[in-house]
Design a protein that fits this description.
The complex is a heterodimer of chains A (116) and B (114). Chain A is elongated and about 50 Å long. Helices cover 0% and strands 59% of the residues of chain A. In chain A, the strands form 2 sheets. In chain A, strands 2, 4, 5, 9, 10 and 11 form a 6-stranded mixed sheet that branches. In chain A, strands 1-3-8-7-6 form a 5-stranded antiparallel sheet, with no helix packed on it. Chain B has no helices and 11 strands. In chain B, the strands form 2 sheets. In chain B, strands 2, 4, 5, 6, 9, 10 and 11 form a 7-stranded mixed sheet that branches. A 4-stranded antiparallel sheet of chain B has the order 1-3-8-7, with no helix packed on it. Classes of the chains: A mainly beta (116), B mainly beta (114).
Chain lengths: 116, 114
Amino acid sequence: KQEVTQIPAALSVPEGENLVLNCSFTDSAIYNLQWFRQDPGKGLTSLLLIQSSQREQTSGRLNASLDKSSGRSTLYIAASQPGDSATYLCAVILPNSGGGADGLTFGKGTHLIIQP
Amino acid sequence: GAVVSQHPSWVICKSGTSVKIECRSLDFQATTMFWYRQFPKQSLMLMATSNEGSKATYEQGVEKDKFLINHASLTLSTLTVTSAHPEDSSFYICSAREMNTEAFFGQGTRLTVV
C-alpha cells in the first residue's frame, strides 16, 4: 500500500528565506505527483503537477522535483512571503489496472508559517 | 484550470439525519470523480472512486451503505451521508477529472453533526 510521508510536519521561518519541503513515497510506480496548498478550513489549491516521466516543474517562485527511483519529491519555495503561510500537501497518483490513473494518496502535510 | 464546484461549503445537521453534498464539474465532463475525507490534523483520505454510470468503488473501511455516492451524469456526483453521527463530522472534498487528465478539486464541505 502506498504511503506518503512529509517532512517536516511544521516549519516557521522569517520572510525572505528560501526553503525546501520534502515528500517521500513507498511505491515508485506512480502515475504522477502533485503538490497542493491548503489554507485553514479551505479546499485545495493545486500548485504543481509532475508527470512520472518528468523530473521537475516550475511555477513562479515554486519548483518541484521528482526522483521516482528513490521515491522522493521536494518543493522549493524561493524568497518566501507571509502569504505563503499554509499547509503544503504532497500527493501521489498510482496507475490503476486499466492503465489509467487512480485516486490520490496524500501525505499529512507541512504546516508552514512565514514570519513577517 | 478547470472548475469544480462543491455545495454546500458547510452544513450542521442533527444526529440521525442525512446530508447530501454535491460536486459539479462546470466546464468539463467528469468521467471520474473522487470523494475524500479529512479529519483534523490528518491527511486527506480517499473514500471512494466513481465513474459516470457505474457503481462507486469504496476504499477499505468505508461503509458503502452509509456513504451513498451517485454519479449519474458527466457533470454531477453526490455524496449522501446517511444517518449521520458526530463521528462523521469531517471535511469532505471531491475531485473530478476527464479521462486520465489532471484532477481538480472542489472547495470542500465542512460537516458538523450535533
